[in-house]
Each structure stands twice: as structure tokens, then as C-alpha cells.
């Protein structure tokens, strides 16, 4: 009996040794090198960013430098392919010539590692209804972050805005965990473009090295930027660098807010990390209120989304703007410390904000990590803001 057991164990080990590949955590086959060196495999991603009406950026990281490519098309038969110019461990390729408001399939190809098939949507024209999601402070509690991400997946937004503090610290481990939440525990990263603004926990060079974001400001950086999606103009400002009226950021923001793209948009939405209005742990940043807040108010911005305080809080309209703190993406929740007459609704909960755009109407609903709906309100450009119960 013991001889049979030893023989069975030996057979299993022999088969495993002869099998030319291993199966990684993603379920993909990673082939062994005959000489004992394992070929490069995907360790982060793929993940989407900068999706426009006619283009999209696909990025991923491999364990070692290698060449990679993206196959893409309107069906799972693909039909088009773009590749790296040289071997690298960080890959980022821009797909161009895409159709407007169309669903695309793609997969990434490496030396011996082919990803699953993923789909995404290109941006629509101004007359098409769509939704997007805003949330922030996704650091620290990965189980809570994944719960929120799974509800985001169910909402099927066209893109995601993160109000900062993506990670707890600027370390490789923390960034690995962030991308694991997006691209392994869920499929948000592979199928929905994510845009962000720097928080106080990750502002700096590593933030810029790990993300691929628009860079249309005067300094040609990803520190702050804007983009258009359908009938919405999105502005990502940066509360972690100089925003004084004489700063390059502030001067660029004025120029952007007065651009044809911003002035012709049906809705103007801004994000940055620290809140001008908050009743929670950190409280209101009155310097930001008097600078960036006043700038947005004077240029017809509809909503300003912030993070930093780990809660949900919405103000009544203040000089035409509704300010929303959405810092419940996964970080430890904070208690409210004061009451203010400008608060319309507030709640201590992990959550995200779902924003639906349909013509002249914007509906925002806070959705908790268990899928239940909380606070909701409507902005109808033909009417006044309408709180929903």
C-alpha cells in the first residue's frame, strides 16, 4: 500500500515537472523556459486610461523587460495590432483610429503570456446619455475597496474619477495592491478607464510613473489636466501643489475654464483632493475654498468632488456649485465633528457616487458598498437642483 502511495506521489511530481507551464493567480498559462528561466509575465494590468472618441491607452507591467503588443477590434476576432518599439517592463500603447461610441475588444500579447479578452467603450458624442463614477481614498482597507469596486462594476460606468489617496504610501507594494484590486480582484481596470487627482498620501514622482493620464496643461504634465466626454467637461486640479492665483496651475485653470470646450459643455465637473467644505475629521480647507472654489464658482462649474475626509457629504448649492466629499473608497471611515447649515446630506459609509448624464439632466446617486442607494439629487439645466428622498 505504501509503495503504491509513493508511486502515485512520484507520478504527480513527474507530470508537474514535465508540464511546460504554470497557471498564475489570473488563471493565465505562464510558460517555463527550457533553460530554467521563466519568461516575463504580466504583474500589473492591463488597465485603461485616456479613452476618447477615437483613441484609448492600454498599459501593463511585466516581470521583466520584453516586447508586447495589443490586438484590438470591434469583435473578438480583433483585426488590428500595435506593438512596443523596444523591450520594456512598463508598457503603454495608444490605440488610434477607433469609432466613436463603439464597443471594442482587446487583449495583450507578450513573449509567452496572452491575456484574456476584454471590452471597453469609446467616448460618445454630445447627444448620447451615459454614466460615470466618482470615489476616492481607496487606500488601506483592500477588502472594503474591492467591495466598492464590485458595485462599480455592476453600475457599468463609462469612466471612473478618483479624488485621491489611491494608496497609503508611495511604495511598490502599495501600488501593486492598488492594481491588484482593480485588475485581479475585479475587472474595473481592464474595462473602465480610471482618471485621478493626487492625494496627500501619494503625490509625487511615483504617482506620475504609475499612471497614464492626460497631460494637456501648459507644463505638459499629468499633475493637473482636463478632458471632454460626451457633453461633460472634466477638470482635475491638484491640491497638493501650488494653486495660488500666480501659479502655473491656477493660470492654466483660468485658461481651461474659459476655453470653448468648457464653455460649450452641458456640465462642468471638477475634482481635487482636499475639500473646501467638510464637516468631517479634517474639516474645510478655507484656503482652497477662497481660491480654487471661488474660481470654479465664477466659471459656472456644476459640481466639485473631493476626498481626504473618509465619508460622504453633499452641500446645498453654494454660489451655483454643489460640493461633494466622496472619500469612502476603502480607507478607515471618519466621524463627523461639527454641523454646518450648508450641509444637505452626510453619511459615514464606504461608497461611490454614480453620475448619470442625459441631455440637460444630471442625476447623482451615492451607492454604498453593499449595493444599496443613499443620497441622490438632480441638476436639470432647465430647472433648479432637486434633492431626492
Give an overview in words.
By secondary structure, this protein is an alpha+beta fold. The chain contains eight helices and 23 strands. It has helices at residues 2-18, 142-155, 172-185, 188-191, 205-210, 248-257, 260-263, 286-298, and strands spanning 21-23, 29-31, 42-49, 56-66, 69-73, 80-83, 88-95, 103-109, 118-121, 130-135, 160-162, 194-196, 225-229, 232-236, 267-271, 303-306, 312-315, 322-326, 343-347, 351-358, 361-368, 373-380, 386-388. Strands 12-11-10-20-21-22-23 form a seven-stranded mixed β-sheet, with helices on one face. The chain has a seven-stranded mixed β-sheet with strand order 13-14-15-16-18-17-19. The protein has a four-stranded antiparallel β-sheet with strand order 6-5-8-9, with no helix packed on it. Helix 2 (142-155) runs parallel beside helix 3 (172-185). The protein is globular, with a radius of gyration of 23 Å. Residues 1-36 have low confidence and may be disordered.
Structural class of the helix and strand makeup?
alpha+beta
What can be said about the biggest beta sheet? 7 strands, mixed
Give start-end ranges of low-pLDDT stretches: 1-36
What is the number of E strands? 23
The helicity comes to 10-25%
Mean pLDDT: 90
Q: What fraction strand?
A: 25-35%
Shape: globular
What's the N-to-C terminus distance?
71 Å
* Sheet with most strands: strand arrangement: 12-11-10-20-21-22-23
Number of continuous helical runs: 8
Rg computed from alpha carbons, rounded to a whole number of angstroms: 23 Å
Amino acid at each position: 500500500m505504501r509503495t503504491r502511495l509513493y508511486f502515485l506521489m512520484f507520478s504527480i511530481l513527474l507530470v508537474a515537472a514535465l508540464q511546460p507551464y504554470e497557471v498564475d493567480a489570473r488563471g493565465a498559462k505562464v510558460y517555463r523556459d527550457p533553460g530554467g528561466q521563466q519568461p516575463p509575465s504580466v504583474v500589473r494590468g492591463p488597465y485603461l486610461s485616456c479613452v476618447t472618441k477615437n483613441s484609448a491607452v492600454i498599459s501593463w507591467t511585466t516581470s521583466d523587460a520584453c516586447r508586447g503588443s495589443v490586438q484590438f477590434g470591434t469583435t473578438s476576432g480583433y483585426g488590428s495590432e500595435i506593438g512596443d518599439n523596444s523591450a520594456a517592463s512598463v508598457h503603454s500603447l495608444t490605440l488610434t483610429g477607433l469609432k466613436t461610441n463603439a464597443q471594442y475588444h482587446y487583449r495583450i500579447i507578450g513573449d509567452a503570456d496572452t491575456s484574456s479578452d476584454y471590452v471597453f467603450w469609446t467616448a460618445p458624442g454630445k447627444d448620447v446619455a451615459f454614466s460615470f463614477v466618482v470615489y476616492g481614498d481607496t487606500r488601506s482597507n483592500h477588502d472594503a475597496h474591492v467591495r466598492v469596486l464590485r458595485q462599480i462594476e455592476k453600475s457599468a460606468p463609462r469612466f471612473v474619477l478618483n479624488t485621491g489617496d489611491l494608496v497609503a504610501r508611495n511604495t511598490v507594494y502599495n501600488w501593486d495592491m492598488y492594481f491588484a484590486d482593480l485588475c485581479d480582484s475585479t475587472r474595473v481596470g481592464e474595462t473602465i478607464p480610471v482618471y485621478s487627482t493626487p492625494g496627500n498620501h501619494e503625490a509625487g514622482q511615483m504617482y506620475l510613473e504609475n499612471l497614464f493620464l492626460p497631460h494637456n496643461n501648459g507644463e505638459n504634465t499629468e499633475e493637473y489636466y482636463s478632458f471632454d466626454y460626451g457633453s461633460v467637461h472634466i477638470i482635475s486640479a491638484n491640491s497638493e501643489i501650488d494653486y495660488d492665483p500666480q501659479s502655473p496651475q491656477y493660470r492654466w485653470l483660468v485658461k481651461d475654464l474659459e476655453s470653448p470646450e468648457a464653455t460649450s459643455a452641458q456640465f462642468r465637473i471638477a475634482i481635487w483632493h482636499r475639500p473646501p467644505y467638510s464637516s468631517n475629521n479634517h474639516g474645510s480647507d478655507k484656503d482652497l475654498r477662497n481660491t480654487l472654489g471661488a474660481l470654479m464658482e465664477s466659471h459656472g462649474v456644476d459640481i466639485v468632488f473631493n476626498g481626504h475626509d473618509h465619508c460622504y457629504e453633499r452641500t446645498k448649492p453654494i454660489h451655483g456649485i454643489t460640493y461633494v466629499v466622496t472619500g469612502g473608497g476603502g480607507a478607515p471611515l471618519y466621524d463627523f465633528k461639527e454641523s454646518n447649515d450648508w450641509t444637505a446630506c452626510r453619511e459615514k459609509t464606504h461608497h461611490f457616487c454614480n453620475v448619470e448624464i442625459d441631455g440637460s439632466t444630471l442625476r447623482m446617486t451615492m451607492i454604498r458598498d453593499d449595493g444599496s442607494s443613499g443620497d441622490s439629487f438632480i441638476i436639470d439645466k432647465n430647472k433648479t437642483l432637486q434633492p431626492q428622498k
